[in-house]
Specification:
The protein has 9 helices and no strands. By secondary structure, the protein is mainly alpha-helical.
Length: 231
């Protein structure tokens, strides 16, 4: 019964919440579809956290997407021990980069006074869920071998069954609790997405491609102004 609710019912509840509230926020207050960047408050630590985080998480997400779209090709690719090792090491390195970047971003957000002052409860929730997702993913990679293969053979059929509105729990019921938690946490992230600034990644700024150039002119020396503010 627990598996039925969390893996056959809750995914649809999470997607419904995400779609309804995302559209509501976009059409009622689209300005808040922003990351509300704190880069102008502090930039050095942000760089060392943001770059590895984005590199690592994009690598992981791309790997999950390829495995979802082409599971048979992944299984064939893993038929060679060398190719399989390359794939597993690449995924592990991506996860470690994501973890390092996320830890730096969390450290920055709670130790820098100006950044901490603009941190909301939803920011804390998102950071906790992202950290849980990354740590559980790394835990799976280190605890259970041949992750890319059983992902393609077990999790992908379950995910596809959810997409066609016929969730088949036989694929996920026998998986370890850590894997189930990883899947549940991912669905929970989808549900809380509309309540956070993480929602900004749903809106691609493609209008910048055809937008006219903006000319910025300084009427004073910006370096001098910054030095005065620091003092």
């Amino acid at each position: 019964m627990n598996d039925f609710f969390w893996f056959a019912v809750f995914p649809y509840v999470a997607v419904a919440i995400e779609l309804v509230l995302s559209f509501y926020r976009y059409f009622t207050n689209s300005y808040k579809f922003s990351s509300l960047s704190s880069g102008f408050l502090e930039g050095k630590t942000l760089f060392w956290g943001s770059v590895p985080w984005h590199f690592g998480i994009l690598t992981i997400l791309l790997g999950h997407l390829i495995g979802f779209l082409f599971p048979r090709h992944i299984l064939l690719f893993n038929g060679s021990p060398l190719r399989f090792a390359i794939l597993e090491v690449t995924a592990l390195v991506g996860g470690l980069f994501a973890l390092f970047g996320l830890v730096v971003l969390i450290y920055r957000r709670f130790t820098n006074g100006r950044v901490s002052a603009v941190t909301s409860k939803s920011d804390v929730l998102v950071l906790f869920l992202l950290l849980t997702q990354v740590v559980s993913g790394l835990g799976i990679a280190l605890s259970y071998r041949w992750g890319s293969s059983w992902y393609a053979a077990s999790l992908v059929p379950y995910l596809k069954s959810v997409f066609v509105f016929a969730p088949d729990l036989t694929y996920i019921s026998s998986l370890p609790p850590l894997v189930k938690w990883h899947v549940f946490n991912a669905v929970l992230l989808v549900a809380v997405l509309p309540f956070t600034r993480l929602i900004h990644f749903l809106v691609l700024p493609i209008h910048y491609i055809w937008r006219s150039w903006q000319v910025v002119r300084w009427n004073w020396n910006p370096k001098t102004i910054r030095k005065r503010n620091i003092r």
